[in-house]
Structures are given as structure tokens and as C-alpha cells.
Amino acid sequence: MTTAAAEPWTAGPGAGEGLWRPASGCGPDCLPPPAAPDVSRPRRAGRLLGVLGMLLAGAGLTVLLPLLSAARGRAALRAWARWMLRTLGVRLLVRGRVPRGRALLVANHVSWLDVLAVLAVSPARMVAKREVRSWPLVGALAAAAGTVFVDRSRPRDLPATVARVAGALRSGRSVAVFPEGTTWCGAATDCRPSRGFRPAMFEAAVAAGAPVVPLSLGYRYAGDPSTLPAFLGAETLWASVRRVLAARGLTVSVTVSAALHPAEGADRRALARIAEAVVHPVAPTRRRTLAHLPVPAVRRAGRRSWYETALVGAVSYQDL
Q: Are 297 and 121 in contact (CB under 8 A)?
């Protein structure tokens, strides 16, 4: 048994497009076949107008956020995200509670709805690609909410981005990231991004001594698991939005798992693999039993659950 020590993070001369532009195996076949809309045209138009109204409200929020206290700003952002989901006709179902205080929130990535779902549960600072900053209204709101933008065309900037995330965690803010780096259907295992959870942002949690909280996002349509809200490949955002606006009975579930507390000097790669096993509990080789055990959602009386202790031990003392 050996100690897994963290190595210094550098982009290195080999850093390039493959590292920064992950791809999934998803295609049009991963989406449900075209079908008649569930809701009437006037209802769809009403939803669209409601969404535009919420975007305008978000524009107003960009002005208010710098003037509000941190607590009130987070409450306003959470309320905005929840109302946006309702306006879209999406029901939010939350299992568990995000621990109070700072944390690195890590989640699987299926849809543009994921951002709203995470903010509705915990209004954390998001990590997003730089292009989001230029989106009308959305980019301004993201910037006002403290989003950390990543320039994926400049891999050598990654260490500075990790440092900014670590700084946010040290200041007491939670940060949310989708470590798969791209969306995928969430249904077919052969569609998952080949390299899984990218470990870079986990280094920020290790450096800041912050817990990592895995979030599992899932979607149901008319009661059954569905890829309807997935945003994949060459599909346009508008096409995905129209599919959501036309759906009735769409639910997004957010399952909050037990916090992982990395030991000092923990290996970011091992931490990423453990978090991924919690979010995607598919039978990984020698971690099958641990990945399928029940996960307590909340720490009690300031003590770690046996599950958290086992995971911390794995990060600190095992080469995974």
C-alpha cells in the first residue's frame, strides 16, 4: 500500500486540443424520435415568452447582485433558477442536501438545463467555457454570478484557472463544475466521454482543503428515464430548447451524495475517479462494492460517515 501524493499541476508541452475539447460518442440516434408536441402551440408560445421574461429578469439581476449581500445574492440566484425551470415546464426533484459552507460541486453533464438545476440546489460559482461570456443576457448574468470562464483554446492558462477556483473555495464560496467537459445523453455507457471526469479542477479542492460533493443529474419524461433534454453534438441550442418547450411531464432530479474530504496532498486523479464512481455507479473492477453501497446525504454531528472515511482513506493511501 503506497501513499498517493499529488503532483504539481502544469499544462505541459503536450497539452492540446484533445485535453481541452472532450468529445462524447453521442449522435442523433441518442435522442428520442421526433414526435408531436405534448403541449398546444399557445402553451408553447406562453412558455417561450415566459423564458424571455425570465432572461430579462436575469438581466436586472446582474445589476442587483453586486449590491446585495452574499447570502441575499445566492438566494436571489437560486430563486431565479427555480422559476426558470418552472417556466420551462420542468419539475425539480432534489434528494439529499448540499452541505453548508464551501465545496467543489461536481456533476455529470447532459443538458443546458444542468446549470439551472445545480443553481436551483446550490447557487455556486460555475465553471464555464469562455464562449458563454458572449451569449446575450446569459453571459452577463453568468459574469455577475461570478462564473469562472475557461479559454479552451489556451491550454497553458489552465493552471491559472485552477488557481482561481481554489481562490474562490478559500474565500468560502462553493464552485460547481462539470468535469466530463462536454454533454452526453446519459443513457448509453459507450457514449460517455472516453476520459471520464477530468481531474484538473479537483486539484483546486485539494489545494484549498475543500470537500468535493458529487451531484447526480437525471431526467425523466412522462415518468420514464429519457434523453429528451440532452444537448448533443452538432444540434443547435434552439432545437434543444424547442424540444423542452414542447414536452409535458419533464423532471430533472438532483441527487446529492456524501461529501468527499480529500486528505492533504491527495491525488487529484484518484479523487476524480472516486467522484465519478459515485455519480456513475457502474461496476468498476475492484470498487464494485463501495460504489454500490448506500450514500448518506448529510454529515451529522460534525462526524464523517463510515463511507466518507473509507473514501478518504482510498484517496490518501491507495494507488487507484
A: no
Tell me, what amino acid is at 283? Answer: A
**SS3 sequence of the chain:** CCCCCCCCCCCCCCCCHHHHCCCCCCCHHHCCCCCCCCCCHHHHHHHHHHHHHHHHHHHHHHHHHHHCCHHHHHHHHHHHHHHHHHHCCEEEEEECCCCCCCCEEEECCCCCHHHHHHHHHCCCEEEEEHHHHHCCCHHHHHHHCCCEEECCCCHHHHHHHHHHHHHHHHCCCCEEECCCCCCCCCCCHHHCCCCCCCCHHHHHHHHHCCCEEEEEEEEEECCEECCCCCCCCCCCHHHHHHHHHCCCCEEEEEEECCCECCCCCCCHHHHHHHHHHHHCCCCCHHHHHHHHCCCCCCCECCECCHHHHHHHHHHHHCCC
Alpha-helical segments (H) within 88-224: 113-121, 138-144, 158-170, 200-208
For 245-259, letters b (16+ CB in 10 Å) and e give bbbeebbbbbbbbbb
Q: Quick check: 316 pLDDT over 60?
A: no
pLDDT at 21: 66
pLDDT the model gives residue 16: 42
Average pLDDT over residues 288-295: 33
Distance CA(100)–CA(229), nearest Å, equals: 30
Specify which residues 272 forms β-bridges with: none
- Tell me what the mean pLDDT of segment 38-53 comes to: 95
Mean predicted lDDT score pLDDT of the chain: 81
Q: Which residues of 170-192 are buried (b: 16+ CB within 10 A; e: fewer)?
A: eeebbbbbbbbbbbbbbeeeebb
Beta-carbon count within 10 A of 282 CB: 11
Q: What is the dihedral of CA 74, 78, 79, 84, to 10 degrees?
A: 140
Residue 116 pLDDT > 70, yes or no? Answer: yes
